Amino acid sequence: MAVRPVPEEPPAIQSERALDPTATWELLERVSSLVEKLRQRRFVGEDPVVEVPSATKRRVSRATLIEEAIVAALAAERLGALLDLNGTLVSVAEDVAAEELATAYRALATWDLRAAESALARALRVTRFPKHQQRIALGWALHRLVSDLLRLVPGESKEKSLPAERLVAELLPTLDQLPHEERAFYHGEVRRLAAAWREAATDDRSWCVWALFRARVALLRGEGHETTLAWLLRLARRAGLATTGDDPNGLATLLRQAEAVFQLLITPGEHRFAWGPPAAPPADETAQSELRQLAATASARDLFRALVAVLTAQWGEDALAATQRFALALWVPEASSTTRGDV
Amino acid sequence: MAQTTASTVSARASRAWQQLRASIGQPQWLDVPILVEPISEPQPRKIVLRAKTEDGEDLGPCAVYADEWYPGCTTPNPFSHYFPVLWHVLDARLRRKEHDPLRLQVLKAVCAQTSSGREQVVLLKFIVAPEYTVTGRFVEDLYNCPLKVLFERFLGLARDSREQPPRLGEVRGRAVHTGYRRALVEYAATQDLDRAAQAYRAGVWSEWTRTLQALLATSVSQDGGAPKDLVESFTAAGSILAQIAEGDVASGAVELYLERLFYSATRGLSGRADRIEVPRDASAGPLCIAEVKTQSSIREQDPVTGESFPGGLQALAYRELLQSLGFTDVDAVVELVDGQSIVTKPLREHPIVRRLRLDLSKPDERVIDLIVQARNVYYCVTSGLFTGYDRYRLDNATRHWRLPDVSGQFDLLNDRPPCRSCVARQRQVCPSSRDREGRTLEGLFRYAPPPLFSYWVWFHRQLKAEERAERELLFHLVHTPPDALEREGVTLADLRLQRQDGRFATFVRPERRLDTRIREDDLVLVTPQWPDGLLGRIPRPGELFSVQGRVVDLQEYDLVVELDDRVPLAPPGQEPTYRIDQLTGFDMRAWQLEGLADFLVSAMAATPVRGRMLRWSELPPLAQTILGLREPASIQTDTPLPVWATSGLNASQRDALAAVAALAPGDLLLVQGPPGTGKTALIAAMVRFLVARALFDPARLPERRPVLVLTNTHRAANEVVLKIVEKAPEVLPFLVRVGNEREDMEDAVTAQTLPTRSGLPPERRRQPPDSDDEAIAMLLATSRRAQVIREHAAVFVATLGSADAPELRGLTFETVIVDEAGQATEPAFLQALRRLPFGYRGRLVLVGDENQLPPVVTTMTAPEPWPDLERLGIRPGDSLRTSAFERLHRRYPSACVRLTEQYRMNRPICELVSHVFYEDTLRPANERVAERRLAHWLAELGAAPPAGLLGQSPPVLYLDTSDDPLARDSGALFQADDEGRTNEREAELVAQLLSEFLRGLPERLHQKVVEQIGVISPYRRQNTLLRQRLTRAHPSLAALRVDTVDRFQGGEREVIVVSLVNSNREGVIGSLHAEWRRLNVALSRARSLLVLIGDRRTFTAPEHTVEEAEARERFRRVFARIDELARRGEARVIPTRQLFVPGAGS
Fold first, then answer.
1. Digit-coded pLDDT (tens) for B678-702
2. Least CB–CB distance from A46: residue in B447, B611, B868
């Protein structure tokens, strides 16, 4: 194994030498003071532009001017305000906004709603570009769509189609700063996702794909052991997969372990819920103990893997890949039409 | 008198602080008010304050920590709202540069020992700014959705009035409610179920007929029968009467108080409970509040049983409110009007009480925490202290419906907001709404174009300042000694009840004159002033025993009040005295805020883009024009008009009509009409022309009507209708005067209201039919007629305040004409835009005169405008008193047609007015007007001019009191803007002058002559004095109209006498005269003779303030022009030193 050469003087030491905490705090205090002044003006209804101080009519050193410019730029960045740079207005954090937007869209594509939400909020805080603003608006609408996709169980929801479908469809034509291709792409995506969800409401196999997708998201988001197991059990039942079989590592065992988790919840005992089902005949201690052992070994991840394998064999296609039909595809601009700030 | 004044509460606060320091580390319940000022900037988890009593006694420093923590505390509450609310309030006050102390009602505090051994007072629970009154209903609203409160109560968002009217369910609830209340009162009084049944029917009938919304929404059901809601509201009588017969009222053991205002200065809460039952025998049981809710109310759910019921927090708040007043034993019930019955839920069984596991039989801090949390957060959010006008903060706040930054965690809140009943969802501006659809308007604040946002902020801030003044009024009444209030002119104390005749009560105070700013038509509270048995002290205004009323007549020593309920009579042995306090109605600004919010939302919603900052050039063209950013289309006065359209109009009126005819959708036209120039006649001509043109427009949509006329006052709306009756009677079948009939309406106007036109005049509404079936049949027939009339109506005349009336719901107009536009505040004027088609694709015509009186507002000080506002035409010195007409005229002088021919004043009076106020452009319309003199008028009456000053006077008579030592004014009587000055000498001169004039005329003419004389003074108090002197001088003069300038605007008389009042060595002219437009209105009311009485020296003295400089200059020009007219023999100037002095002769 090759050993990476160690530099004679590590860069960390250089930066430690350069760092001056006092100067840092002094600078940040000046930034904070300017930010506070700007906030004050915002509070009464203004939307001030941050001025970069100039040397006109003042006798100040170049170093002071640079410092003042840095303070102004940082304040503008903190507040997402516009900076007046020699008479030109610039938005100093658009790169940050673009990055956050990219993060948000990626998170949406992987169903990570929380990450998408925070990234959209961060992007919104700093952006001034109309294109970015409209992408954020679209991001929120797509967030709603993905949320609907996850929240509404096909065939069990009173909604016949995803409510956010209309929201996105009506929003898209109003996003005048986005390229037509991008809007058309997302329009198509929304229709595709909504159609997939509708199909899942009527078709067993599609429903199973949706349930697998739902369980996959539950695993990804760490929604909780029981939640994931519940989705997987429902999937197995709908797919007609048996819980009989003796292979200790086989699907049937994994399903029995999962069922045990829920059986324990409804078994009469000291802490039986008042709202529970009619009392079953008291289980003997041995049965209870077996259930506890089974439940203790239940693994959502193992069950998920096993189900993916079985369903892949059953359907003749990669079941995990099939869940991607509920994933939002992201628009990739053509190289020729790419402009700065495109996500 | 047991008044809780500053000194008594200060003493309590001092004692409470001593008590705290005596028990270190022991939290204590104090319930005392203090004033605090931050010692340093609020820190993220700690605020250090300096506390003082109301008297200013220093209580030393104190602190507030996050989570209700204090040194030594082992159980902090991380969900506490007290710290975040106080932090936001102090932070905002700092930003607003408000440095006066903040009032806190400290409920709980502790004197803790810090780790260094120092003693420190820590405030744990408190009510922030208790002087700001919040009603129980608003507390409930906040509890249901804080974000809804931000949208509705801070922003002022309202339903889009272009939508169709709501359905009948709401009216049914109200009808059953009213019927129930009336039946209950009748049964309590008579114990007769038959009479209670009649009262029930009368109540239901009155509700269905009172609300035009009901008439317009009622129609036969699909099976051809009467609508279920209508039928059920009548048939519910059976079960409701049975319930009444079984209740406490049946035994007669309780006394009923209905819809009484009650208020607690220590809780910052007020309420108007539907009913309060007070046991006649104080030991017989608790006082019981009943809050009645309808089916549509938002409900609280019991998580255990699933049962849901509304009104819990409101009832808890009312209970707490009454307890804080001193009523120890209070119970509450919530009654739900559910279909055909009333479901009663005692508070102790209410879901909210069950969720909290509250034991209402003993004090529970959690109850007050819940109420105070909702109240404090409401105050913080609606007064703008939470967000200020920071568009980014506002936008961020809308991201979470619970407003977690300020409300801690409302863990008792519903788990989701009640979006279905929220206008923010309907207007699609709420990002937190669960079921958004369509083209949502996210980023309402963030993405508003800067000029639009600045415009909204500028007016919103001022309206909020007005609202705050109103919300603090009750506190002021309770916290100020009556003698101080009497000096302010808002209270009359020591009154005795002389007579109570039905709803009318006469109060007298023979030993002291009623010097007050209260006047006829004012809303007042009458409060008995003897110790109440339940309270154990003298009640203060708003403490349950006050009765609301309206002043009908005010004389020197007595006044008559029309009351909502009978006032209680003093028990034997008690001094039967009462006090009367002036009360302004809450939420006076609500519809203006709504207009402003609607402009912000509708202007943005009309743009085709979403999701980004809008450019102002993307707003609808008319919105750009209103914002002062787009010049209106140039005026075209050469549009050919049919002969019939211009008959009877003068040249300038014809120009204005031609300009209206040429307007395109999205255009604005200003018509300036100086006094007497025939503005109303022009409006009638416009209406006739626009209706005729619309009749031949095949492309017009059925919901799009030709013309809507909006006015600032009901009087002006009536004048418009009368003018149309006179000048364009052919329009009448298509004209609707919006609203119900009013007492001050002429018959011809009443005939145009929808209820009367539908066959339901007031007398029929007051008299319900004998049976339910008859009532239902009559309502159905009437509603059919009302709907047909509305369907065919082409012209609607309404006030700006009723632009959202049921008759207008769902309708838009091709042209909206605003009369008296110079008198409407800018937010009030925006109501007109709400009636234009979507995107403001309609024509807007503003008729007014900025040289006459500006809008009436209570807050006189205007904020400093910021540079952005210059673009909109807003200048330093502008405020809510600057009308849209004035601003837009300044901005677009070329968009205005000025009417220059007037039909009122004769030549000398016209010359005076034209020279001083209209750059000499105004002239009499014809020779008949120009040459009209007093003699002509008297000749028409069949009399010759009598001898004496008035009878022989030229058209302008000036009685100069400069050298008259008797004619000095009284000085300011009240500490208020209008000061309440009087001038006895001027009053006496007016009385002598007019009585002399009247005595020279045949007695048979006295009534007709008096009808044509008006006396004007700017001061209410002087007018009261004038009335008294006139009545004393000649009995016929009792009927003479004496009024303020403001109330005379729009009126005219053959003879006008103006009493200027101010006469003093200091040259003080006061704020009323500083408004120079008041002088224009006063001088321009006369046709034949103008009499001016006043002290030239006072009014032409050097100005004291910049604000009065222009007024002084105008006064100088008035006197100079009078001198010039006098030189020509058209005016006469008489020093009053020797005039009408007893023994000196005239």
1. 999 999 999 999 999 988 777 777 7
2. B868
Other beta carbons within 10 Å of B553: 12
Q: B473-583: what fold?
A: Elongation Factor Tu (Ef-tu); domain 3 (2.40.30)
Place of tokens 């919300």: B471
Angle CA A294–A299–A302, to nearest 5: 125
Using the 8-state DSSP alphabet, how is residue A211 labeled? H
Looking at residue B138, its pLDDT comes to: 92
Choose between B34 and B341: higher pLDDT. Answer: B34
> What single-letter amino acid sits at B610?
R
Give the per-residue pLDDT at B224: 66
Backbone dihedral angles phi then psi of residue A59, each to the nearest 5 degrees: -105, 90
More confident residue, B589 or A206: A206
Quote the distance between the C-alpha of residue B641 and its chain's center. Answer: 41
Architecture of domain B903-1135: 3-Layer(aba) Sandwich (3.40)
- Whole-structure pTM over 0.80, yes or no? yes
Nearest 5°: phi and psi at B512? -145, 135
Specify the CATH superfamily of domain B622-761+794-898.
P-loop containing nucleotide triphosphate hydrolases (3.40.50.300)
pLDDT of residue B1: 37
Cβ contacts of A118 on chain B, cutoff 8 Å: none
Is the CB of residue B76 less than 8 Å from the CB of residue B67?
A: yes
Residues of chain A with a CB closer than 8 angstroms to some CB in chain B: 39-40, 42-47, 79-80, 121, 124-125, 128, 130-131, 133-134, 136-138, 140, 144, 163, 166-167, 170-171, 174-177
Whole-number average pLDDT of chain B: 89
What residue spans define the domains of chain B?
6-128, 138-159+376-467, 473-583, 622-761+794-898, 903-1135
Alpha helices, DSSP H only, in chain A? 11-18, 21-43, 62-79, 94-109, 113-126, 130-151, 163-171, 180-202, 204-221, 225-238, 251-266, 285-297, 300-315, 319-322
How many percent of chain B have pLDDT more than 70?
A: 94
* DSSP secondary structure letter of residue A52: P
Residue B453 neighbours by CB distance under 10 Å = 25
**What Rg do the C-alpha atoms of chain A give, in angstroms?**
28
Chain A positions in Cβ-Cβ contact with residue B438 (cut-off 8 Å): 166-167, 170
Cβ contact, residue pair B447, A121, below 8 Å? no
Per-residue model confidence as pLDDT tens digits over B1073-1107: 998 999 999 999 999 999 999 999 999 999 888 88
Identify all chain A residues contacting B89, using CB atoms and an 8 Å cutoff: none
Q: Which of residues 450-489 of B touch A (CB under 8 A)?
A: 450, 453-454, 457-458, 461
C-alpha distances (whole Å) from B386 to each of B88, B390, B594, B934 are: 6, 10, 20, 63
Q: Long-range pairs for A335-341 at CB < 8 Å and ≥24 separation?
A: A337/A179, A337/A181, A341/A94, A341/A98, A341/A129, A341/A131, A341/A132
> What is the CA A221 to chain-centroid distance, rounded?
9
* Predicted-assembly ipTM surpassing the 0.85 threshold: yes
**Side-chain half-sphere of B1120: how many Cα atoms within 13 Å?**
9
CB B595 within 8 A of CB B498: no
**Which pLDDT tens digit goes with each residue over B954-972?**
999 999 999 999 999 988 7
